[in-house]
Amino acid sequence: MFKLQEQLRMQNQELALKNADLDAFASMVAHDLKTPLNAIIGLTEVLLKIYPEGLSNKQLECINLMAQSGEKMTDIINALLLLATISKQDICLQPLDMAHIFAQVQTRLALMLAQSGGELIVPERWPLALGYAQWVEEVWANYVSNALKYGGHPPRVTIKTELRHQEVVFWVEDNGPGLSEESQAQLFKPFSRLSRDKRSKIQGHGLGLSIVKRIVQKLGGEVGVESQEGMGSRFYFSLPRADNL
Fold this sequence. Notes:
- The protein has helices at 2-50, 57-86, 98-108, 110-116, 133-150, 181-186, 195-199, 208-218, and strands spanning 94-95, 119-121, 130-131, 156-163, 167-173, 223-227, 233-240.
- By secondary structure, it is of the alpha+beta class.
- Strands 2-4-5-7-6 form a 5-stranded mixed beta sheet. A two-stranded antiparallel sheet has the order 1-3.
- A hairpin with a 3-residue loop joins strand 4 (156-163) and strand 5 (167-173).
- The longest helix is centred in the N-terminal third of the chain and has 49 residues, at 2-50.
- The two termini are 39 Å apart.
- Pfam families: HATPase_c, HisKA.
């Protein structure tokens, strides 16, 4: 029994070291890519501002595609940097003004919501939870943007909260097609994109939900999903209750 426990401890230690090496590598690569990518984006902006009248429609189209691709690459790099730094960053849990945090998310996603013609239903009152505001905003942004992307036509996204003994659970419900058990098992894994994503025109890098999981676990909570095919999905995350202090 002792030998088995020792083997398990060694395996966990080895896995932790490999994860640390992977995070360091991702951070290094992301930093190295950021400088030349910023130069490319800057040059495309210069071309569009200074020479718009001297360029043909085809040239303008190509430059706009370059700019859009640069922005997508920037999103991927920022996601990699966030994923790599979460486990290393020391934070202090603070009571969250969740109404303000979610208002920030609504501002970020206002264009997406308008373009989708969707509806976002938000609680009138928010229970008090502990966390780190900047990271919790990223959790909400990932969950809500996914609900808008993969919800019904138009999407209807409902935010709910649930007070439990030592935690607050936050739910994001959508009216989409739902997920199979096989698909649910792949969620929250880095670089995992479901078959629905690959078949659709929706762009993504497969890092969003893995970032959500790492953030929430760092804050002392859990993540998960409840879904049935044809019945929509309910994604959730939990945080410690602030009124337990």
